[in-house]
Structure formats: structure tokens, C-alpha cells
């Protein structure tokens, strides 16, 4: 074989083009389904979700300074990248029983209607995706304390995860009354 004499550049280019066209062939019908995406978390013995667009980030419990004359469920204020973040014990706020953060506790950082807050939850389970049509009414599957904030959710491996509404929480009189 004579290296350059056996190579036909036009034939090589045609073979490459045929290979690319075969690889780029699309199926005749693309199935598209609407998906709901959110962050799964645990609060006490309740499994919950919060829509993706309502959470800016999740953090380990930051160091915070206590704020005098506030409700027991207000842990304090933290400096997160130069921005002051009120740290709220979500369990204490909703159930009236403040729980000390544990090893798996995290803060869901939310910014809704210019109210920037960190909600302490027991554990974050990560991102979940569900078909929109699988959404079901919560009914009596959630604790009574959560009823104003959870109206629907998704079944996930035998566990019902309620969709927690940050707007409903921020609109509640109790959330807005952090002063003692």
C-alpha cells in the first residue's frame, strides 16, 4: 500500500457525511411530557416538596447571631455572602415546638416578594421530577398543622410528598409576627 495514493479525499468526505447523517437521524415521533420539579425535604415525620422556582439554594446551618425579642422559632440572623439571612425554624413555626437542628438539617433559602429568609428543615433529599398529571390532592395525608400550606402532592415509592407553598407561608400572619 502506498499511503497517499490509496486515499480518496472525496470518498472519505462522503463516508463521513453519511455517518453523520445516520447518527443525527431523529425518531419520527418525540414524546414530550410536562414535568413538575421540586426539592424534596423532611420536616418531622412529613415528607414535603417545594417548587424549584421558590428556593434559591440549600445550605448547611450557618453560624447566626441571636436576635432579642423574637419568637422562639427565629434562630437568628446569618451573614450569607454579605447578605443578612433570617434563620427560621420551620418546625417550630408550624408545630409550636422548636427543635434543635441535627446533623442532617439544612436551610432552604427563599426570596419571595422581597422577603429573604432561611427555613431550617430536618433533611433535604434532593431534586425530584414528577409527571404533572400525577399530582394528587393531599386530603388527610398531611399533619393538620400543614393543611394551610399543602393542598396537593405526589406519590413517590409509597410515600406521599406534599407540595409546600412558600407564598402561603409568607402570607400567613404567624410568619409575619416574629417579634415577641
Please characterize this protein's 3D structure.
This protein is of the alpha+beta class and about 180 residues long. The protein has a single domain (about 35-175), classed as OB fold (Dihydrolipoamide Acetyltransferase, E2P) (Beta Barrel), CATH 2.40.50.180. It is about 15% helix and about 40% strand. The protein has helices at about 10-25, 90-95, 165-170, 175, and strands at about 35-45, 45-50, 55-60, 75-80, 85-90, 105-110, 115-120, 125-130, 135, 150-155, 160-165. The strands form two sheets. A six-stranded mixed β-sheet has the order 8-1-2-11-10-9, with no helix packed on it. The model has no long low-confidence stretch (mean pLDDT about 90).
Q: Secondary-structure blueprint of this entry?
A:
Layout: H1 9-23, E1 35-43, E2 46-51, E3 57-60, E4 74-80, E5 83-89, H2 90-95, E6 106-112, E7 115-121, E8 123-131, E9 136-137, E10 150-156, E11 159-164, H3 166-171, H4 173-176
Parallel strand pairs: 2-11, 5-7
Antiparallel strand pairs: 1-2, 1-8, 3-6, 4-5, 6-7, 9-10, 10-11
Amino acid at each position: 500500500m502506498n499511503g497517499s495514493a490509496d486515499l480518496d479525499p472525496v470518498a472519505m468526505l462522503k463516508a463521513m457525511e453519511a455517518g453523520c447523517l445516520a447518527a443525527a437521524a431523529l425518531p419520527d415521533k418525540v414524546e414530550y411530557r410536562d414535568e413538575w420539579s421540586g426539592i424534596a425535604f423532611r420536616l418531622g415525620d412529613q415528607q414535603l416538596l417545594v417548587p424549584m422556582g421558590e428556593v434559591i439554594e440549600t445550605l448547611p446551618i450557618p453560624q447566626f447571631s441571636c436576635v432579642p425579642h423574637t419568637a422562639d422559632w427565629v434562630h437568628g440572623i446569618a451573614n450569607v455572602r454579605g447578605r443578612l439571612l433570617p434563620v427560621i425554624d420551620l418546625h417550630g413555626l408550624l408545630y409550636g415546638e422548636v427543635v434543635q437542628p441535627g446533623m442532617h438539617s439544612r436551610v432552604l433559602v427563599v426570596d419571595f416578594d422581597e422577603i429573604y429568609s432561611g427555613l431550617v428543615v430536618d433533611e433535604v433529599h434532593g431534586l425530584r421530577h414528577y409527571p404533572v398529571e400525577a399530582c394528587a390532592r393531599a386530603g388527610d395525608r398531611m399533619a393538620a398543622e400543614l393543611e394551610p400550606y399543602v393542598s396537593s402532592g405526589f406519590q413517590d415509592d409509597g410515600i406521599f410528598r406534599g407540595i409546600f407553598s412558600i407564598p402561603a407561608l409568607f402570607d400567613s400572619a404567624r410568619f409575619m409576627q416574629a417579634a415577641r
